[in-house]
TrEMBL record:
Source organism of the structure: Algoriphagus zhangzhouensis
Subcellular location: Cell outer membrane
Single GO molecular function: siderophore uptake transmembrane transporter activity
Pfam families associated with the record: CarbopepD_reg_2, Plug
Alphabetical list of Gene3D superfamilies matching this protein: Carboxypeptidase-like, regulatory domain, TonB-dependent receptor, beta-barrel domain, TonB-dependent receptor, plug domain
Domain TonB-dependent receptor plug: 263-333
Protein name listed in UniProt: Outer membrane receptor proteins, mostly Fe transport
Membrane-traversing stretches: none
Membrane topology type: Multi-pass membrane protein
Record's keyword annotation contains Ribonucleoprotein: no
Top-level division of the source organism's lineage: Bacteria
Length: 896
C-alpha cells in the first residue's frame, strides 16, 4: 500500500504546483494508452522513467482511466485526468505526489492528531475530515455571561495575530468562518475578563463561550452599544442598538431610567418636548413607529405623560432601533421599528435587584426554576408622586393625584439543545386625576409565547403567538357633568420565522405572519346624574393584516455585502359601517349619499402591498465603509390626533372604505470611519423619505366621538430629508458622543378639487415635528473606578405652531381670531442640560450587596422651555412650559 506519510504532507502545503516550470525534467509517455487504469500507468512510468509517485490505495486510482498518446507530456496528461476527480499532482524535490488538493489541510489535521502531545488542550470543532479544506467552514456559537447565562451582545471573538474576527448579534450568537486548522481565539467584552481559547477546526461545529465579570480590573467606562468597529461593519443601514449599560449611563429625570427616551440622544431621533409620550424618527409622527417588547406590539411607550419609560430597566437586555423599514421581517409602520428585547432570568442562581427613588421604586427577582434548564425573572415598579404635587402652589396641581405601576414576567425553558420555550407577560396601569374631578387612565396588557426550534446547525425556526391590549379612559366625576370615555385597540398575532445559513457568507430569513386588530374608536357614557348628555357609541372596526417575507443577507466578497428582501402584505378591513359621499361635493355629513354596513368578518375592503428592501455595504478599508439603502413600507392603521404628542384622546383607526394606507419610500447614503484603533468613530448619513397618503384633519374638524370622521380627514403627501452626523469617543476616562441632525419634515394636501379639503392653499408646509436643527452631546467622565459623572446637553429648533395674525372685535362682546396658515410660526428654541453623578459600592468580589447611589439634576440651569403657545379668545398669548426649573433627585440601585 502506498500510504502517504503525514509528515511529508505537512511540508507539501508549503509547495506549489510546478508544471511547466524550468528545472524539471520532462517525462513523456513511451507508448499509447487507451482507457488504461491510472495505477497501471504510474507503475510503468516508475519502472521505465525512474519517476516516483505517492498516493493512497483507498483513493481508487485504479478506477481512473487514462487516454494518452506516445510522446505526450505525461505529467500534464496525468494532472488533467486527476483534476476531473478533484485531485492534482504536486512535485516535491523530484518526488511526484498525487494529492487531493482541496483536502490538503486534512492531512495537516492528521499530523496534529498523531503527533501533537498537547492535543488535549485544544477544543475540537467538528468531526471526521474536512470535505474541502481550502474553503472555510463556519464555527457557530454564542458568548454568554458565565454567572447568569445571559447573552452578551456585541462581544468580539477574534483569531490571535490575525484580522479575522466577528461580533455577536442581539442573541449573543456569532458565525466565524475559518479554514480547517489550529487557532487561538480571543473572546472579549467590555467589563469582562478576556478568554483565550485554543481550537482545532475540522468541520462545521459549535463553540460556546462564557465570560466572567471583571470586577477588579475595570479601568474605564465605555459608552458603546456594540463592538467598537460595528458601526463600520454593520450591514443594515440605519440600525442602532443601545444595551442597558449605555442606557443607564445617561442622566435621567427623577433618577428613573427610560430606555425609549435615551434614543433621543441619537441623530435622527427627537421628541416634541418634556411631558410628551412617543418619539419622532426622521420627521415622522409617533404613530408611525412600530414599538415592540419581545415581538409584542406596545401602543403606549411611557408612564405619566411621558415622564417615565414604560419598561423596567431591570428587565431590558437592549433596545434595537431601525431608522427606516428595517429588514423584511418587520412591517406595518412607515417611520421606524423599535424592539425592546427583554433578558432571560439567571439560570444558575437567585438574584434580587431594584432601586429606590424619590417618586418611584422597583424590585426584580430572578433565578432558576430548574437549574441550567428553566429560569424566570419577575419585575415590578410603582410610583408615589402625590407628595410632590402637594407642594405645588397651583391649586389645580396640589389637588391632583397621579401614579402608575407595571409588572413584567418572563419564563425561559430549555427542553433540549434544539428546543426552547419562552413565556412573557406585561401589565401596566397609569392614573392621573386632575383637580379631583377628571381622571385619565391608560392600561396595557401583553402576553407572548415563543417556541424556538433548531432543525440543525444551519436551520432555525421561531414561532410566536402574541396578544396585546391597550385601553384609554377619561372619567369625569362632577355630579351633573360626569361621563366615562373609552377607546382602545387589541390585537392577536401569530408569526413563524425561519433562518437558514448557507455557508459563512449567506443567510436567508423567511416567514409568515398574521395580525388581527379590534379597534374601539370611542364610547361616551354620561354619568347617572348627567341629564344633559346622551350616550355615543362609535361603531367598532376590525381588520386582518397578513404578510409573507424573505430576507437575504449575502456577502458578495469580504468587503461587499448586500442585505435585500421582499415583504408582501395584505390587509382586509372586516365588518363596520361606512359612508359613501357625493363626489361632486366636499365630504361632510350633508354629502352622504349611502351608508354601507358589513357584518362581522365580512370583507369591506382589501389592500395589498409589495415592500422591497435593500441595504448595501462596501468596506472601503477595514476601518471605513460606505452604505446605501432603500426601504418601502406600508402602514395600514393610523393614529388619529390633533396634538403634537400622544394624549388620552388619541386613538387608532383602520384603513378602510374612505381611508387609504400610508406608503413610504426611504433612501439613505452614509459614510462611516473609525481611526486610532477604534478610539474614535465618525459617521455622516443622509436620507430622503417620501410618504403617500399621510393623514391630517380639516380646519375646525372634530376628532373626538365623530361618527362621520371620514368627512373631516384628508390625505396627502409628505416628505422628509436630512443629514445626520455623529462623532464618538469609545475609550479613556472621557467617553461619549456628539450628534447633529439637519432635517426637514413637510406635508402637502392639494389633491381634492374642493377648497375645504385643501390645506395651506395646497403648498408644502412644516409638519408638527419639523425641527431643522437638533444637537445632542453625551459625555461620561470616569474619575475613579467607583465615581463617575454623566452629562447630557440637548438643543433643537422650536417646533411649528399656528397663531392668530389678526382679529375682528365688536365692543367687548365679540372677538373673532384670524389664524395664519398651518404651522407657519415656531415656539422659541429648545435647550437643556442634565447632570448625573454615580457612586458605586466597594470593589470587593465577595460583597453581599452590589449597589450604587445616583445623584442627578434634570434641566440644570432651569430653562423654561416652551412646550407650546396658546391664545385666549381675545388673542392674548401665553406660553406653556411643562418643566420650568431644575429637578434634582437621588436614587439607590442595588443587586443582591
Amino acid at each position: 500500500m502506498r500510504k502517504l506519510l503525514p509528515l511529508l504532507f505537512y511540508f507539501f502545503i508549503q509547495t506549489t504546483i510546478i508544471f511547466g516550470q524550468t528545472g524539471i525534467e520532462k517525462i513523456t509517455f513511451d507508448q499509447d494508452y487507451k482507457d488504461t487504469p491510472l495505477s497501471e500507468v504510474l507503475l510503468n512510468l516508475e519502472s521505465k522513467k525512474g519517476a516516483q509517485f505517492f498516493y493512497k490505495d483507498d483513493w481508487g486510482i485504479e478506477a481512473f482511466l487514462l487516454n494518452g498518446e506516445k510522446g505526450q507530456d505525461a505529467l500534464i496528461g496525468i494532472n488533467d485526468l486527476l483534476e476531473t476527480y478533484g485531485y492534482s499532482l504536486i512535485e516535491y524535490k523530484g518526488l511526484f505526489v498525487i494529492v487531493n488538493q482541496e483536502g490538503l489541510e486534512s492531512y495537516q489535521y492528521e499530523f496534529w492528531e498523531e503527533n501533537d502531545i498537547n492535543l488535549d488542550q485544544y477544543k475540537i470543532i467538528g468531526s471526521g475530515k474536512p470535505e474541502n479544506s481550502n474553503l472555510p467552514v463556519v464555527v457557530k456559537g454564542s458568548i454568554k455571561d458565565a454567572s447568569e447565562g445571559e447573552p452578551l451582545i456585541g462581544a468580539s471573538i477574534q483569531v490571535l495575530d490575525s484580522s479575522q474576527g466577528v461580533v455577536t448579534d442581539i442573541d449573543g450568537n456569532f458565525e466565524l468562518p475559518l479554514v480547517p486548522g489550529k487557532y487561538k481565539l480571543m473572546a472579549q467584552y467590555a467589563g469582562y475578563e478576556a478568554q483565550s481559547i485554543p481550537v482545532q477546526v475540522i468541520n462545521e461545529g459549535e463553540l460556546e463561550v462564557e465570560l466572567f465579570n471583571q470586577t477588579l480590573k475595570l479601568e474605564e467606562v465605555t459608552i458603546s452599544a456594540r463592538s467598537q468597529e460595528i458601526t463600520v461593519s454593520e450591514k443594515i443601514a440605519g440600525r442602532e442598538i443601545l444595551d442597558i449599560a449605555v442606557i443607564k449611563s445617561l442622566p435621567t429625570f427623577m433618577g428613573e431610567v427610560d430606555p425609549v427616551k435615551s434614543l433621543i440622544s441619537l441623530p435622527g431621533v427627537s421628541s416634541v418636548g418634556e411631558g410628551t409620550a412617543g418619539f419622532n424618527v426622521r420627521g415622522g409622527d409617533p404613530g408611525q413607529n412600530l414599538l415592540m417588547m419581545d415581538e409584542a406590539i406596545i401602543y403606549n411607550s411611557s408612564h405619566l405623560f411621558g415622564f417615565f419609560g414604560a419598561f423596567s430597566p431591570d428587565m431590558i437586555r437592549d433596545v434595537e432601533l431601525y431608522k427606516g423599514g428595517g429588514p423584511a421581517n418587520y412591517g406595518g409602520r412607515v417611520s421606524s421599528v423599535l424592539n425592546v428585547n427583554l433578558r432571560n432570568g439567571n439560570a444558575k442562581e437567585y438574584e434580587v435587584a431594584g432601586g429606590i427613588g424619590l417618586i418611584s421604586s422597583r424590585l426584580s427577582l430572578e433565578g432558576p426554576l430548574n437549574k441550567d434548564k428553566t429560569s424566570f425573572i419577575l419585575s415590578g415598579r410603582t410610583s408615589y408622586p402625590n407628595w410632590m404635587l402637594k407642594q405645588m402652589k397651583d391649586p389645580d396641581l396640589y389637588q391632583s393625584a397621579a401614579g402608575f405601576y407595571d409588572v413584567n414576567l418572563k419564563v425561559n425553558h430549555t427542553i433540549d439543545e434544539n428546543n426552547v420555550l419562552t413565556f412573557s407577560g406585561y401589565l401596566s396601569d397609569d392614573n392621573f386625576e386632575f383637580a379631583s374631578d377628571t381622571a385619565y387612565v391608560w392600561k396595557t396588557k401583553a402576553a407572548i409565547a415563543k417556541w424556538s426550534h433548531r432543525f440543525n446547525s444551519n436551520f432555525l425556526m421561531q414561532t410566536n403567538f402574541v396578544v396585546s391590549d391597550y385601553k384609554s379612559n377619561i372619567e369625569n366625576n362632577q355630579e351633573n357633568f360626569g361621563f366615562d370615555y373609552t377607546s382602545g385597540i387589541k390585537n392577536y398575532q401569530g408569526k413563524i420565522d425561519f433562518s437558514y445559513s448557507i455557508g459563512a457568507a449567506h443567510k436567508l430569513d423567511f416567514g409568515i405572519s398574521s395580525l388581527h386588530y379590534s379597534f374601539d374608536n370611542g364610547t361616551f357614557e354620561p354619568g347617572v346624574q348627567n341629564s344633559n348628555a346622551e350616550a355615543i357609541y362609535i361603531p367598532q372596526e376590525s381588520a386582518l393584516e397578513s404578510a409573507v417575507y424573505f430576507n437575504d443577507e449575502f456577502s458578495i466578497s469580504p468587503k461587499v455585502s448586500l442585505v435585500y428582501g421582499l415583504r408582501v402584505s395584505n390587509y382586509l378591513t372586516l365588518g363596520g359601517t361606512y359612508y359613501e359621499f357625493d363626489p361632486n361635493s366636499p365630504k361632510s355629513p350633508s354629502s352622504i349619499i349611502d351608508t354601507l354596513t358589513y357584518q362581522n368578518g365580512e370583507v369591506a375592503k382589501t389592500n395589498f402591498g409589495i415592500e422591497p428592501r435593500v441595504s448595501f455595504r462596501w468596506l472601503i478599508t477595514p476601518s471605513s465603509s460606505f452604505k446605501a439603502s432603500y426601504y418601502r413600507t406600508n402602514q395600514y392603521i393610523h393614529l388619529i390626533s390633533n396634538t403634537a404628542a400622544i394624549s388620552p384622546v388619541n386613538y387608532w383607526k383602520s384603513s378602510g372604505y374612505n381611508l387609504d394606507p400610508s406608503i413610504s419610500d426611504q433612501y439613505t447614503l452614509g459614510l462611516f470611519k473609525n481611526w486610532n484603533d477604534n478610539l474614535f468613530e465618525i459617521s455622516v448619513e443622509g436620507y430622503y423619505k417620501w410618504i403617500q397618503n399621510v393623514v391630517d384633519y380639516k380646519n375646525a374638524a372634530t376628532i373626538l366621538l365623530n361618527e362621520t370622521l371620514d368627512a373631516d380627514l384628508v390625505q396627502g403627501k409628505g416628505k422628509a430629508y436630512g443629514v445626520e452626523f455623529m462623532l464618538r469617543k469609545n475609550r479613556g476616562k472621557l467617553t461619549g458622543w456628539l450628534g447633529y441632525t439637519y432635517s426637514r419634515s413637510l406635508r402637502q394636501f392639494n389633491e381634492s378639487p374642493f377648497d375645504e379639503e385643501i390645506i395651506n392653499e395646497g403648498v408644502f408646509f412644516p409638519s408638527n415635528y419639523d425641527k431643522p436643527h437638533d444637537v445632542s452631546v453625551v459625555m461620561n467622565y470616569k474619575f475613579s473606578r467607583r465615581f463617575s459623572m454623566n452629562m447630557n446637553f440637548a438643543y433643537s429648533t422650536g417646533r411649528p405652531i399656528t397663531v392668530p395674525v389678526s382679529k375682528f372685535q365688536y365692543e367687548d362682546f365679540l372677538s373673532i381670531l384670524n389664524y395664519s396658515d398651518r404651522n407657519q410660526y415656531r415656539v422659541p428654541d429648545y435647550h437643556r442640560m442634565d447632570l448625573a453623578f454615580t457612586l458605586k459600592s466597594g470593589l470587593k468580589k465577595d460583597k453581599k450587596v452590589d449597589g450604587e447611589w445616583v445623584f442627578s439634576v434634570y434641566n440644570v440651569y432651569s430653562r423654561r422651555n416652551p412646550f407650546s403657545v396658546y391664545f385666549t379668545q381675545r388673542g392674548n398669548a401665553f406660553q406653556l412650559s411643562v418643566l420650568g426649573s431644575a429637578f434634582p433627585s437621588i436614587s439607590y440601585n442595588f443587586k443582591l
